[in-house]
Design goal:
By secondary structure, this protein is of the alpha+beta class. The chain is built from 13 helices and 61 strands. It is globular and about 85 Å long.
Length: 967
Amino acid sequence: MPVIVSLLAIAYLLWPEGSLTTKDGGDAEMSTIPFQTDAAHAVIDIDTRSEKPIPYGMRGVNNETSNKEAFINHKQLIDEVNHYGRLGFIRWPGGTNSDVFNWRTGMPDIDYGAFSFGPDGTIHGPHTTFRLGQAKGGEHITDYVELLRKTNTKAMITVNTTRQTAEQAGDLAKYLYDNRVPVIYFELGNEIMFFTSSSGKNTAYYKTASDYLDRVRGHFDAIKRNYPGAQVIISVANSNKPEMAKAFDKDVYQYPDPYWDGITFHRFEGDGRTVAEAVKSANSALEKLVPLIDTNYVPHLQKQDTPIYLGEQGVALGGILESTQYHGIYVAESILRLSTHPNITYLAGYRLHNGIFNTNAARGGANASLLMEDAYQRGETVDPSTLAYDSYYHASSAGLRVVDGAVNYSSAVWRAQVTGGAESPKAEGSMPALYAAAYKGENGTRYLVITNKSAQEQQVSVQMNGKPVLAAMKQTYTTSNDPAARNTAIQKEQVAVRSEATGNPVTVAPYSVTRLEWDGEAPDAPREAWLYAAEPGHGSVHLQWYAIPNASGYKIKYGTESKAYTYTINAGQALEYDISGLTEGRTYYFSVAAYNESGESPASNEVPVMLSAPDIPLLRHAYAERSGKVVLEWQSVAGAAGYRILYGKAPGVYTGTIEAGNNAGWLVSGLDNDTRYYFSVRAYNALGESRNSTELEAVPRSLLPLAPRDLSIKKEDGPSISMQWKPARTEVEEHHFEDGTAGPFHAEGWNVEPHPDRSRRVNGYRAQEGGSEFAVWSSTPQGNYEGEAVLEWTDGVQTGQAGIAVRFLDQDNHIRFVYDRTDKQYKLIKVALGKEQVLAAKQANGDPLRLYLFLTIDGNHIYAKLNNEGTILRATDSSPAAGKFALYSSGTGAWFDSVRMYSPNTRTYTVYRSIQPDTGYEAIAMGIKDTAFTDSGLPEGTRYYYKVKAVNELGESHSFSNAIRKN
């Protein structure tokens, strides 16, 4: 066997050791496993007889840019995705943020989020992210489509079934079909098990899994009607919640009509108090992954060939290994293990934002989120072209780039048997440190991907069907001598992707993800192409399609009848083409086929194009949202390049026009409150405009209530049902100090002053030497409320407290939430008759200079929240029973940027009832002042659904509460 002289061992010994952080953000210990360079030998044999075809672009990423400072269609983000290599799909709107995101407006919806997560929820959510969305101008569906087209990527769509109706789901599907967006799956909700009565986590939208399946059937049917050939999948329980999963999934398995096309679940496991403990936990989770699917899922499915899509996976979220090199190893190996499973179709594994593309900082050191917040306070939107992000890969994304360079360029997977090599510890005992799978490249390349979970460098001999691989190989890998290594904004390439030539045997580095590749046989015939643009012009159509990596050229086929193509054009290697000489007023049908030396692909999707102006869009809804704002929703029409909104203060008299782009909804801002507006929409393309849609009207109001939250069944007995709910808090007032005044605050010795960094162009509020420690909000609401303040430390002093107070009577009687710079702790402090009592405290990570602080009063419960992390401190206390909201600073170092107040502003409630889950609701009780209602005298055997709206002197909430069902 030839001897390989490895220079890698020397490089690894010289590898820089960067700072590590724990799940709490503090410094972490290095791995207790020593770094070794003595080689252990292993053999990996690829069995090509075990071939399993895999779909085009099997691997993709989750996306959560809608509530972040990143622009989804920013040139840098697009460039980073293309540099990463081929991604199969990008999930949108993403995970948790899909629960509060409105695809029509491109904004996080405050009404959605106000009751999805309660006062003690883990996400403060929509109020903060709404402001960020306003500053960005929203993340519209056209922005997402632009990202897909510029990165050659398909869509994975999360449908918000908890807040959006079957009608809205159908319109979303129609928009995607009309605009030729290739959708792999429509997911009916995100992590639905957390929205059932038994979860105790979020608002219970559904009684059980059966209730969920009954109620999303309408969404399923609407999607199928509007997107022919759509694959629609349901959410089953996350596997790392065994007790909850057992009850939820039992309902799924026993459901009498399994109408869905597949299932999806998420899995995050692998954590511990130390890195070594977390590695053992993660290894055990890896070993159990395939058996878990074969035990917990497949045998119980009524259709045992049901496709399974793993939509999110990784080590424990927020755990000690998140975003580390070992996180990348973990997800990479899970892909290798799962890609050979017969039920697994597609695999997501990590994030686009805060994964491949990290954007917390803009070049020059500016904080990108801060730029957005400052813009919002000034009433401005941020021009994305002015932002240059200081981006880098997370360590885990670097490892996934290695494995995706094989999986997403292949048409099949082969099992690979590992013999010999080192061991890696697990929770009990040990397991082989090496794992491998091989892939059949579409272009004839052969790939072998290997993970090494040990600190030991290993020599590996590669065989195929028992014979050594003799071809020259290229080796691409990531490695670190510590499993918890992270990339940071300062040390961007602690874990980087490297490539070099290698022979066989191969040196596999410690803690690594390695891809080997070598030339094999002739390429496969190309996969099916996708025609994504067919824009009509005067006597012409402009076509564009996705690139197929192993294609040498493309043929355009078209005619005047569906599937009957009378013309063929060889477009060569072009990815777009203008076809002229067509007759206006006629419909043409277009398709594309890719070809290479091995053959021609099947025909792509067929796109019909009518050479005329588009049809009239259906304007579905117009409703008041926040102060001075109205939301419009319309149904897309095929052939539209965009839409124009017309509005005015008299029927048919339109004095304003808004270019809404190619979207199907819009948030219209800058309107006069208490004034009736009339709206219409037109569609247009290069051949002209449609006529006006039907006109709708709406009256913006200053402070409409939000829909109540947590509607639940108190008692269900024969012909009656008793229900209860909770009022939602809305933002009743905010003050930015941009007008130079203290607004609602009363204080002695506090001044409004600009931030010391004058380039930010924002004002704040600061206590002065010798002045009061408190600035009191004079118009604080009565009862339950929440106060929010953003503060910065600008003096460089390391002592003193600053924060916010509730139930403030005077300086001797109140409750305050502060950050204490002296001992670096967050504290919830009660002051009664001048005596201080610390109710709860938590050590800070580092010494933060900017803080978002939230303090909530909910009866006797007090919740202190930090940034967007949710509650970090809580207490139960009833004294003082009432009092005002105040800012607190023990010195002059704290500069308060903005302050907001949230409170229920509901006077009464209206209860609605229907015999359908989504439609047909009629008011059955109005003017209810209590937060409870009983409906009685109902006939036996009829299923009823109930929703509630909130009402105040300005009108009714535009949205309903969650729905409950009476069996």
